[in-house]
Amino acid sequence: MPSNTLIKKLVHAALDAQPITYLHTHVYNPRFGSSPKPGSMLLWGIDELVTYHYLVAEVYRVVPASVLPYETFWKMPKADQADHIWRHLFVERTPVSEACRGVLTTLGLLGLNPNEKTLKPHRKWFAAQKPDAYVDKVMKLAHVDKIVMTNPVFDDAERALWESDPKLNSDPRFAAVLRIDPLLRDWPLAAKRLREWGYDVRLDFTGKTVAETQRFLRHWLDKMNAIYVACSLPPDFRYPAASGNGAPTAADNFIRDVLTPVLAERNLPWALMIGSRLRVNPALNDAGDMVGQSDVLSVVNLCREFPANKFLVTMLARENQHELCVAARKFGNLMLFGCWWFLNNPSLIDEITRMRLELLGTSFIPQHSDARILDQLVYKWDHNRKLIGAVLVDKYADLQATGYKVTPAMVKRDVALLLRENFWEFLKR
Ligand code: HDL
Ligand code: ZN
Fold first, then answer.
1. pLDDT in tens, 79-91
2. What sections of 1-97 are H helices per DSSP?
3. What is the distance in A from the centroid of ligand 1 to the CA of 196?
4. How far is the CA of 289 from the centre of ligand 1 (A)?
């Protein structure tokens, strides 16, 4: 019977050997343009890493807006913003936060010195990297076999790229996802845009609205060859939104009459990321969003009302995690994924992953990445691999204590399910 030491070796060897598919990132293939070229969507390198919006929020806790006005910061060149953050969060204070530690892990694994007092030496190293080869380097270091993008069709700059470059999604290292937030968060705005693009849609969903909005979805699902549809939703998202016997809302109509039929016909999942309260501090831009407790019953209602549809769900509030786990026990068309955004911290990843293993066995996806900067894939994998490994070691030890034999093949199979196969099997289901 393997000892705990042997189990530890088995688990970490299996994790090290297992390629991971990250099902949600904001990383783009190099055809979308690579930073520092202005307007690029593939963000990489030390200045992007250090000015990631998590670190902007954190530096504004140390140097408040009364000292450095937001508009002054946003007007600074990217390198000056990075120097400001590096000085205040990494030199004059201890970089103990998860977002700070992540930068240091990435630098260390790239063979760079995390103790540099300025970014100058790092800039020199990154300047020698070529984006396309660097994507391969990062994917190798991070054990990633596929980077799943987030492609917001209502983003004008990105939509223009899709309409001008038929080979935009030809990079086999990446897959596309149709991101549709305005259709659910702001139907009036979405309807106005659809009409501009030649779709005969009306605010009140009369006339050809259902057929035309479905035509819009099918057009972009085909153009992107999207592997699922995604949206981020506010904490007050409800399904059905209509209270009592009230008339269905625009979101109810869209979900019931437009989205779920198209996804069911194509057997594509809908990823709901619920709990983001946007721009509570607008001056912080992307760093200005917050978390709010959401309604798990709305997820239950969707899974029950649409048994032919598949739902990938993650929620942003820690307080929702247990109820969401229990909901997943009730519906096989519900797959939980990731410790999203403000949950992506060791103490919470440990708690949530233990809870999910105890309630769901190996039928969930522990992490999705959410990387926005290519280089973040390196630290997210390193941190997560250790956290998921520690939980698995404990769970296997508990299993061993019953006399059940945990074999290397089992550990390999479980790690493959958690890091890759659960996602791809759910897409095919
Ligand atoms: O909406 C989302 O997909 C979120 O992940 C946001 O992009 C958020 O700003 C983020 O970067 N979270 O890590
Ligand atoms: Zn995201």
1. 999 999 999 999 9
2. 4-17, 46-50, 53-62, 70-75, 78-85
3. 28
4. 9
pLDDT 10s digits, 327-381:
999 999 999 999 999 999 999 999 999 999 999 999 999 999 999 999 999 999 8
Ligand 1 atom with the smallest distance to the CA of 232 is 1
SS3 of the chain: helix, strand, coil, percent, to 5: 55, 10, 35
Q: Whose CA is nearest to atom 2 of ligand 1?
A: 232
Q: Which fold has domain 46-128?
A: uronate isomerase, domain 2, chain A (1.10.2020)
- Which residue has the CA at smallest separation from atom 10 of ligand 1? 341
Q: Which atom of ligand 1 is nearest to the CA of 24?
A: 3
Q: Which pLDDT score, from 0 to 100, does residue 5 have? A: 87
Structure tokens at 323: 């109820």
Among all bound ligands, the one having the nearest atom to the CA of 286 is 1
Kindly indicate whether the domain formed by 177-336 is annotated with CATH number 3.20.20.140.
yes
Give the ranges where 279-407 is alpha helix by DSSP (H): 296-305, 321-330, 346-360, 376-400
- For residue 35, report the phi and psi dihedrals to the nearest 5 degrees: -60, 155
CA-nearest residue, atom 8 of ligand 1: 341
Q: Where are the domains of the chain?
A: 46-128, 177-336
Banded pLDDT at 1 (limits 50, 70, 90): low
> Separation of 192 CA from ligand 1 center, angstroms?
25
- Ligand 1 pocket by Cβ (under 6 Å): 26, 150, 232, 273, 276, 286, 289, 341, 370, 372
